[in-house]
Write a structure and sequence with these properties.
CATH superfamily of the largest domain: Alkaline Phosphatase, subunit A
Shape: globular
CATH architecture of the largest domain: 3-Layer(aba) Sandwich
CATH class of the largest domain: Alpha Beta
Structural class: alpha/beta
Number of strands: 16
Radius of gyration: 25 Å
Largest sheet: 10 strands, mixed
Number of helices: 15
Strand content: 5-15%
Helix content: 25-40%
CATH topology of the largest domain: Alkaline Phosphatase, subunit A
Length: about 575
């Protein structure tokens, strides 16, 4: 070999591999559309095996892209799972898990929510020149300390514009007497009434027996009545207090009109896309659909169209909305360079029903359990896909386990933005898996929380094809069912005397627990997973709980209200839409 030949070969290799590693970054970065359904179950779509509920538009989106059959949310309830999707981090790392029984944000007017020092995907996109918008549900807070500070508002978390319901849909919004609280605690009003009556009678008796004076009796009765009045007022006024639609920082509708909401969200999404095509700016659009969370309401075109009551009608309208966005996108120049990510925040709510006892919940197919059930797959394994024409293959199915948090890192790298380095990021770049260049998930271990408790760990070994799941705690189901009364409480979970091992590849329904002591192979697997769990727990630094009971309490002085004191208004832009 002539002198210098070695150096030239090394240089050639460097140029070739350097070109390969930077080719993706050199491409014009794509626009990003995230479609996030609410409470959509693994078995709700015809593309995931439902033979009684046609969803042609979502199915087409999945056929034209990469369908993810083992895609996992970070929690089985919406507030923490959405926080994880937007940050690429387990929500326990930044306080977005509860310290008590309430696991999601329940009021607009409180101090609960994600702090602005978290870096969201919208902020990452803005750092490289993207315009950003959120249309739909937020559910991660509004004001932090005082009325109107809006420190937790989407536009203080990286979104340039916002239109949607700042909290979440609630049964109370239906206006026909349904209540979230009585669904969970049917006898709550009787209990409160009985306690108040006993308290009042007690203070009257103490006064009659001359144990206390008249002033003390009156003070005592007021002390008993005050929390009862607070309780009765707020839980009979949730439609007004929480049913709020905002346009940027302004309340434009109160209470919310659910029947026209999907149409409005579609229109807002289309207008944002059209504006971005006109100004030639790259964009990130999060379409956080209202469907299919209760209260179940659709426009008149979809009422009674399905075989599954109001829930099925809502799925059909969700499919329609998805189709409207995709149809428009494909007819726009920007559609040639746009990545669309479709997913759900958690699994279907199996226990949900209307005031007459009819089911208002969906299906999780063969998976065990559902929304709020903790670590069982029915609550965290969600129907998902990624569409990116010309860059990702079409009609491809990926059965490897992935997480919604992975999309944070994947998208950040794809658009040429820096992934935050000042904090642990749990999402991994899964683009090579989507391309088909890699065939094993970038994640080796997946940790499944119920609140602040790790209930299970999933293990994808670096060889073979089997995925394992080790379960430490299980939901305390009603006898003979896979349901709780309304939601499963993390603190009521059954702690197993010995962790149960599942071959989740061949047993996705978690029906056949393996005794880890029955064979050395299973014992070794369990030890690997237990050690990984302990290592993960050691990486969690205690932080301020953003969903503590004190922060979740309703605060009258922080209550948004349009047209004060009536708190009643209709969005002028959409006042005629049905």
């Amino acid at each position: 070999m002539r002198p210098g030949t070695t150096r030239h070969v090394i240089l050639l290799f460097g140029l070739v591999f350097g070109h390969v590693s930077t080719a993706r970054a050199a491409d014009k970065p794509p626009n990003i559309i995230i479609m996030l359904a609410d409470d959509l179950g693994y078995g709700d779509l015809s593309g995931f095996g439902n033979t009684t509920l046609p969803t042609p538009h979502i199915d087409q989106l999945m056929r034209e892209g990469v369908k993810l059959t083992h895609h996992l949310a970070a929690a089985s309830v919406c507030t923490p799972s959405r926080a994880a999707l937007l940050t690429g981090r387990y929500p326990v790392r930044f306080g977005m898990v509860p310290s008590g029984l309430i696991r999601v944000n329940i009021f607009v007017a409180n101090r609960a929510g994600m702090l602005p020092n978290e870096t969201t995907l919208a902020e990452v996109a803005k750092s490289v020149g993207y315009k950003t918008a959120l249309v739909g549900k937020w559910h991660l807070g509004l004001s932090k300390d005082t009325f109107g500070d809006h420190l937790l508002h989407p536009m203080n978390q990286g979104f340039d514009q916002y239109y949607g319901h700042i909290l979440t849909n609630m049964k109370d919004f239906s206006g026909d007497g349904e209540r979230v609280l009585t669904s969970q605690r049917p006898a709550i009003y009787y209990v409160v009434g009985s306690l108040v009556t006993l308290g009042v009678l007690l203070f009257v008796w103490l006064y009659k027996q001359n144990y206390i004076g008249k002033v003390a009796m009156v003070i005592g009765i007021l002390i008993v009545l005050s929390p009862a009045v607070y309780f009765v007022f707020i839980f009979n006024m949730l439609r007004i207090l929480n049913g709020i639609v905002m346009k940027n920082h302004e309340v434009v509708e109160q209470p919310i009109r659910l029947e026209s909401l999907m149409k409005r969200y579609v229109q807002e999404g289309l207008e944002f896309m059209e504006a971005r095509e006109k100004d030639k700016e790259p964009f990130l659009l999060l379409l956080s659909w209202d469907h299919v969370h209760t209260a179940m309401r659709t426009s008149k075109e979809f009422k009674g169209r399905s075989k599954h009551g109001r829930y099925g009608d809502s799925v059909l309208e969700l499919d329609w909305g998805t189709g409207e966005i995709m149809s428009k996108l494909k007819n726009m120049d920007i559609g040639k360079n746009t990545l669309v990510y479709f997913t759900s925040d958690n699994g279907a709510h199996l226990e949900e029903s209307d005031i007459h006892g009819n089911s208002d919940g969906g299906s999780n197919g063969v998976l065990k359990g559902g929304k709020a059930h903790g670590a069982v797959d029915g609550g965290i394994r969600v129907p998902s896909s990624v569409w990116y024409p010309g860059k990702l293959p079409a009609n491809v199915v990926v059965d490897e386990p992935t997480m919604q948090m992975d999309m944070f890192t994947t998208i950040s790298n794809l658009i040429g933005a820096d992934v935050p380095r000042d904090r642990p990021i749990d999402g991994r770049d899964m683009y090579s898996l989507l391309e088909g260049k890699e065939h094993i998930s970038p994640q080796e271990f997946f940790f499944h929380y119920c609140g602040e408790i790790v209930q299970a760990v999933r293990y994808r070994p670096r060889s073979g094809s089997t995925i394992w799941k080790l379960v430490y705690e299980e939901p305390e189901y009603l006898p003979g069912t896979q349901k709780c009364r309304f939601v499963c409480n993390c603190r009521d979970a059954v702690k197993l005397p010995r962790p149960a091992l599942y071959d989740i590849t061949s047993d996705p329904g978690e029906n056949k627990p393996i005794d880890i002591t029955s064979y050395q192979k299973y014992k070794d697997l369990a030890e690997i997973m237990i050690k990984a769990t302990e290592k993960h727990k050691a990486s969690i630094v205690p932080v301020d709980c953003r969903l503590s009971l004190f922060k979740l309490l309703w605060r009258p002085h922080m209550q948004p209200c349009c047209n004060f004191p009536y708190c009643s208004c209709v969005d002028d832009k959409y006042q005629n839409i049905q």
